[in-house]
User: What shape does this take?
Amino acid sequence: MSFLIDSSIVITSQILFFGFGWLFFMRQLFKDYEVRQYAVQVIFSVTFAFSCTMFELIIFEILGVLNSSSRYFHWKMNLCVILLILIFMVPFYIGYFVVSNIRLLHKQRLPISCLLWLTFMYFFWKLGDPFPILSPKHGILSIEQLISRVGVIGVTLMALLSGFGAVNCPYTYMSYFLRNVTDTDILALERRLLQTMDVIISKKKRMAMARRTMFQRGEVHNKPSGFWGILKSVTTSAPGSEMPDLTLIQQEVDALEELSRQLFLETADLYATKERIEYSKTFKGKYFNFLGYFFSIYCVWKIFMVKFWSQHISFILVGIIIVTSIRGLLITLTKFFYAISSSKSSNVIVLLLAQIMGMYFVSSVLLIRMSMPLEYRTIITEVLGELQFNFYHRWFDVIFLVSALSSILFLYLAHKQAPEKHMAP
Amino acid sequence: MASLDRVKVLVLGDSGVGKSSLVHLLCQNQVLGNPSWTVGCSVDVRVHDYKEGTPEEKTYYIELWDVGGSVGSASSVKSTRAVFYNSVNGIILVHDLTNKKSSQNLYRWSMEALNRDLVLTRVLVTNGDYDREQFADNQMPLLVIGTKLDQIHETKRHEVLTRTAFLAEDFNAEEINLDCTNPRYLAAGSSNAVKISRFFDKVIEKRYFLRDSNQIPGFPDRKRFGGTLKSLHYD
Assistant: This one.
């Protein structure tokens, strides 16, 4: 009887999470696009729902809510469903949508996507070989095999993102690093941009007029193609040679267009920096600035961390870590999505994001075990089997360090280059 | 080249609707072979005969400014884009017939270009019930073009075309539906070609021949940074 009550509680919360994921998808991610394939939205929401349920079960574990046997059952079930989604459904659909975008292969979508999925499975399986993640007594198709591999990918991802985030967050919010951008800088760049556009326009006018005159004279403009064509056009002079050489002008235009793109991006960058400066003067901005200092100290400390503290981190911190990492992940995913998606690729990208999100959450569960007080670790160990947890922690630390150091290097170089660019007249 | 006068027309719309292909078709009478991302703004020039076939025929250069991006871009990108919206003489709004959102976003695009001082939240709240009076007052010539007509199945065509007719009516503009990969839609003498020609004629007329009666109201150069930004074009 109590099992039924417990199950209904868990299932209700799952439905709530599903609804939240659905709304997030509709309102945030896809607000500028049209949802034509509802399967994508459903998969995303389901992945989100089951991932959140895992965290919920951890909290229940710590608080001692619900019957322990029903908790165990739901853990297992949740895990199975998530693995099913992450290993079978999402990769298959990603392959399917990628192939659908390519016009040529449209007819044989299904068999080709099956082929792609099999390739994915092959590499996924091979992933387990170089890592000491299992004890040899496990069978081939057991949960441990699959989780261990998902865990490796997810932990690597997490460590890369955390390393970069640990460095980037203070860099972005701490006012010490914000370059001073004045309105005159922006105006100067805009003036350059418009001047470049004007030069492009005047050249295009010449080309358009030349084309029209040639068309009216009844000449057909042969684009010199291939090596011999170019050679020929260089050696022989075109009839009516007062006509400007169109290919030369086209090359100049190409170079100028590239310049205009650069100027556009630089101007957008300056506007973004200016907004950040203004934001840093607000109350919210000051708060994040303080957090930035706090987190940078925390991250430095974590890099050189001593084992001493880990046992004593209370489950409140576990809760905070869970909530902030979910929120941080969703925000980062949204920004990323806006930056790179288009109406054609939006489906593929959302599915990729769902995959990353699922793997991220699964590996969070693996890693969170470290932050939990001893008595609560047993359920995770019980459910996930005998994975070599220590390996994951060491692997996380290594990748985190590598990622953080390379981000520091990268940001340092980018920071140094930038002021010189804008000082140039 | 100063002998021919200058006219600037914006081409706006969501990314991926086919603005670059359209501009290429209009200016070079050729299909664009390898469409790719437009970063910033790309310009092309069309040589247009104003009042073709009449004694007052005169040749003009029409600059088509194809502004890339989406309505949901970061505000820094929007601020940068705004520099292209100065002294515009006409706007072509492009939407994808297979994507309803791109048609809806045209309201936001036109607001962004026409009223740069208007707070965008107002438009979002009244999306769909946007301010008709704004467009009734509007003096800027508009043209609505729907692309990817070939991808609409025969059976759905009527429904789609009704929807776009309403859209064009809202903007008080002419509309054209075509496929940018097929030049026959704009073949000389076709009704589409006539509509485009009429649109450009209207733009030129507003720019050069109605000057004394009324300067185009409602589009002052943007006041930024406390001062007016002088027009940087060499007229």
